[in-house]
Amino acid sequence: MKIRxxxxxxxxxxxxxxxxxxxxxxxxxxxxxxxxxxxxxxxxYFQPKSLREDIFEMPNEDILTVKELxxxxxxxxxxxxxxxSEGKVPGFKVGSAWRFRKSEIDRWIAEQEQKQEGxxx
Length: 121
Prior knowledge:
The protein is rod-shaped. The protein starts with 8 loop residues before the first helix and ends with a helix. The chain contains 5 helices and 3 strands; from the N terminus they run ααβααββα. The protein has a 3-stranded antiparallel β-sheet with strand order 1-3-2. It is mainly α. Helix content is 54%, strand content 8%.
């Protein structure tokens, strides 16, 4: 839909048809917004992450935060932070924040299990 503006804007600005044109523009804008919303696929933020098709899904080599590490190991966040600070778990810092490669944590868990088996014998 093409909108034609009158050549003499000053004369038309005071007349009621200008208000009608403005209302038509607003209605067209609302229609465009509705069409854009209707065209975009719905995204359910409450759907479990495993069922969503995330665009930014990371590869198998996940990087964990302290909170995620604590959840993964089922320990308190303070304990996970202390382990990282003391060098008990493999990790690295990004600025002042600790990060952990899931593959290295899995390897560390296997080493801990082997140590415990060796101590029990």
